Amino acid sequence: MPESAEFSFSTVPHLVSGPGASSRLGSLVRSHFPDARRALIVTDPGFLGTGLVGTPQRSLEQENIAVHVWSDVVADPPESVVLQAVEVARRHDADLVIGLGGGSSMDVAKLIAVLAGSEQPLSQIYGIGNVRGKRLPLVQIPTTAGTGSEVTNIAIVTTGATTKMGVVAPQLYADLAILDAQLTLGLPPLVTAATGIDAMVHAIEAFTSKHKKNPMSDNLARQALFLLSRNLLRACEHGGDLAARQAMLLGACLAGQAFSNAPVAAVHALAYPIGGIFHVPHGLSNALVLPHVLRFNLSHASAHYAELAQIVDPGASGSDEARANALIAAMEKIAAQTGIQTTLRQVGVGESDIDKLADDAMLQTRLLGNNPRELTRDDIHRIYSAAY
User: Fold this and answer.
1) Burial degree of 25 (CB within 10 A; 0-12, 13-18, 19+)
2) d(CA 366, CA 205)
3) Order of strands across the sheet with 154-158?
4) Do residues 150 and 177 lie in contact, with contact meaning Cβ atoms separated by under 8 Å?
5) Does the predicted model carry a pTM greater than 0.85?
6) What is the pLDDT of residues 289-329, one digit of tens each?
7) Cα(331)–Cα(213) distance, rounded to whole angstroms?
8) Beta pairing class for 38-42 and 14-17
9) Strand 164-168 relative to strand 154-158: parallel, antiparallel, unpaired?
10) Are the CB atoms for 85 and 58 separated by under 8 Å?
11) With 70 as the cut, is the pLDDT of residue 2 above it?
């Protein structure tokens, strides 16, 4: 994209990054929202069980903010969970929503913030730009270095047995995001790996997005990929390394800012059905199809992939195509080194399931339209077969 071409860029207006930052949540909230009285913390049972909710909760209470912790978020949250959460917020008359967790907790927090004070039903806000009116003040604090949801304007909801829909609207951008690596120290290596590769996918897909790629998103994607590729294995193998963990959180956040403006594409379109049907975590679903989608895109994206290869594998040399292939090899090597599953059959997909996966992936038109190369159903079927 020529630098003179017009583009727009949006993100969260305030970001605080540093180990221990969430222990100052109360004073940060007070400076941004002087009138806040009743906060709803949205998290999941697993994170609640770590005991790490206590410190940010106490710091809010020291600022005379009453706190209700709601911890019933599940992975790939269904509509029923979102609606239950909205009711809880209304019942407690919350005037501040805090997402504290992985992508699912932060997505639910976004939806509570826009729906709790509104007459608009959830069914009306699916799609792009359909949220009306204002929302409650919103703070996002990620506890995994993956989704970048703390800085995106997207929330994903499971709408049927296997189907997902997205809400995309400017109101979903939080007022404040806090990156505190101390909250990620307990993440198991395989979760660290899958969420980290998820963030790398965000950076790669933003950098090659067909429609809205721009100089700001490009710079963020490059820096994200640099931080993530340098620190992922360290964070997996030495989970207590605070510097590596903070670098991963920042990398995931920068990748989130990139793809919120230059949206993701076919890797995500093919990953969603794997998650929806087989309940494979989102980051792992992305990792399983990533190299195969990149190979498919080579004819249309080699120059971009070659540029990214220099970041992930500084020794890569030769033609654009040679370096682009080096990027794919490097991503495959990273997945192998972390020990995550690398084939669909390892996560319970049967060969006879590929038709259903291909049908479902074809429905992801919002994402497929961003891919550098157009895909037919046959193309998608071949990519799943290669990943099998």
Assistant:
1) buried
2) 14
3) 127-128, 164-168, 154-158
4) yes
5) yes
6) 999 999 999 999 999 999 999 999 999 999 999 999 999 99
7) 22
8) unpaired
9) antiparallel
10) no
11) no
Nearest to residue 73, comparing CAs of 64, 63, 83?
A: 83
Residues 369 and 286 sit within 8 Å (Cβ to Cβ): no
Task: Please name the amino acid found at residue 3.
Answer: E
| Mean pLDDT score of the chain | 96
88 neighbors 70 (Cβ within 8 angstroms): yes
Q: What's the rounded Cα separation, in Å, for the pair 312 and 327?
A: 7
Non-local (6+) Cβ contacts of 232 within 8 A are 192, 193, 196, 197, 200, 248, 334, 338
Q: Which residues contact 209 (CB under 8 A, 6 or more apart)?
A: 217, 259, 262, 263, 264, 265, 370
- The length of the chain, given as a count of residues: 388
What is the rounded distance in angstroms from the CA atom of residue 319 to the CA atom of residue 248? 30
How far apart, in whole angstroms, are the C-alpha atoms of residue 252 and residue 232?
Answer: 11
